[in-house]
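Data availability (excerpt). The following record was deposited with the supplementary files.
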Amino acid sequence: MVHSSQTISFADRTESPSISPLNRYLLSLISIKHTNLCVSADVHTTHELFEVAEEVGDYICVLKTHADIINDFSERTIRGLQDVAMRKRFLIFEDRKFGDISNATDTVQSQYTGGPLSIASWAHLTNAHLLPGPSLVPALQSAAFDTLASLNQSVATTISTGTPRRSLDSNPDPTPNNEAPPTSSKAAKTDVVFQHHRSNRKTACATTTISQTYEAASPPQPPALLKPLSFASDEDFTPQSTASALATLGPPPHARGLLLLAQMSSAGNLVTPEYTSACISTARANKDFVMGFVCQKNLNREKDDNFLSFTPGVSLPKGDESANGIKGDGKGQVWRTPEDVISKDGIDVVIVGRGILAANDRGREAERYRKAAWAAYEGRLHKG
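Predicted structure:
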């Protein structure tokens, strides 16, 4: 039997009373932008990551990253990616695949919040597999909560030093030359106050107060334009109406979400039906944090299930190539078309990597995938 989540629109799904704020936001974003496409930015430098984000950002709802393969990953990478995400209006999904045990040493929490990546501080979404057991999920949620709370605190710092540096006199702005100030899709206001005092002993005291405010965890209700835009054809889809709806929607909520790796697209994978069932049960017990699954088919079963389903391994034929010719990459990845995964298997968001990254014109290819995925979604609604 087909679940209701496959027969009603993304816009209608935002009205579920049990949906999390971040899930509601993403469903609204998908509806407004007419895109259920996630691009996997599997690149190795910050420059390449910025290029991909700029080129495909208008056509996607989510950008998937692999921060651990970016050779020059730094705070600059985070700030720049957040800036593009704010301008192009997409969420960031760090494909970390957490799977360590949750024990007294809090290893998995440290992996999420600490180290050189500090994933919880910038990625709206991440993922995990459930092999260590369901306790992994509340451990990650607790770590996310603590990180967001720390980002929302005011910071007061007093520094005493010797002879004042010229930079304290000539440039009170703490941001280095030619470097953009830190940005956050969550930040609504930032006030920075610097006070400098000198004495005859040539000492300096700098007192820095930084206060940041963030939007509430619950975003505003989806804009009135949401449903009309959701059902409008691409031909009736105007930049003005989209911009108005996005402005009303506002920035993402101050929240984090988790996707559970419930099924896999690679040939010969060892995922069992019992494991998938455990993922579904754990998701139901943690609806305020688990947004959905990385899976091969829609896993909503019970009446109140409203989880989003993401699937990789999606490809489109090129030119006169037949869809029947799309089988895989010869390295274990099995490819399917957007029609296969969305219309037939009820998937919500398709994840595409090489099919777009290898294109000469990534923007044009992303738009081709966006149109195909959205058409498959509309076809699913009409069949329902």
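Summary of structural features: The radius of gyration is 22 Å.
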